[in-house]
Amino acid sequence: MSVQDPCAAEPGRGVDTDDLRTAIAAVEARPSSSSDLPPLAPEAHEAATAALRLLRHRPRSRHELRERLLGKDHAPDAVDEALDRVRAWGLLDDADFASEWVRGRRRRRGRSRGALERELREKGVAEVHIAGAVAGIDEADDRQQATELVRARLSRSPVDSGPGADLQGERRRLVAFLARRGYPTGLAMTVVDAELAAQVSP
């Protein structure tokens, strides 16, 4: 296996786990004689190989990948050289990572804009990339997303509006459900109240 060769993938292509694995395989399969990049130092080569193993599992931000490599006792200079090379191969791009993170977490988990921003900051993504990734989400989008989440939950567990029904308890549970996905309390309460009213109205 050689990791001294450029990848055919281009930065800006977006980050998808299957695409990433295919691109990694292309890097590893290319013969070293085809390289148009200078050889990595031995320590950096080891760090780059470790980086590719980590990226097979899922896309990562540069900060996240760097922290993992440092935690495996690779020298900082070797890690930085390795990550520069991984980026040159088109396998590491924080702007793409942030955009794909937002799309995936929004679609699968229904995360609010605020929650997505916090998650990306925890992964060390620069503010400029975070801003670009969430630029298409405004308050109206968050409200619609929260409404869809509550409706889906209520469709699975309809509200009991009969005598003795604990509507306030249901309200608290739904607001907490949205809060765990990062929605502000005010927005969550507004959405939950509207959906509960629609459920229990004659």
TrEMBL record:
<feature type="domain" description="RecX second three-helical">
    <location>
        <begin position="93"/>
        <end position="133"/>
    </location>
</feature>
<dbReference type="InterPro" id="IPR053926">
    <property type="entry name" value="RecX_HTH_1st"/>
</dbReference>
<dbReference type="InterPro" id="IPR053924">
    <property type="entry name" value="RecX_HTH_2nd"/>
</dbReference>
<comment type="similarity">
    <text>Belongs to the RecX family.</text>
</comment>
<dbReference type="Pfam" id="PF02631">
    <property type="entry name" value="RecX_HTH2"/>
</dbReference>
<comment type="function">
    <text>Modulates RecA activity.</text>
</comment>
<dbReference type="InterPro" id="IPR003783">
    <property type="entry name" value="Regulatory_RecX"/>
</dbReference>
<feature type="domain" description="RecX first three-helical">
    <location>
        <begin position="49"/>
        <end position="85"/>
    </location>
</feature>
<keyword id="KW-0963">Cytoplasm</keyword>
<dbReference type="InterPro" id="IPR036388">
    <property type="entry name" value="WH-like_DNA-bd_sf"/>
</dbReference>
<protein>
    <recommendedName>
        <fullName>Regulatory protein RecX</fullName>
    </recommendedName>
</protein>
<dbReference type="Pfam" id="PF21982">
    <property type="entry name" value="RecX_HTH1"/>
</dbReference>
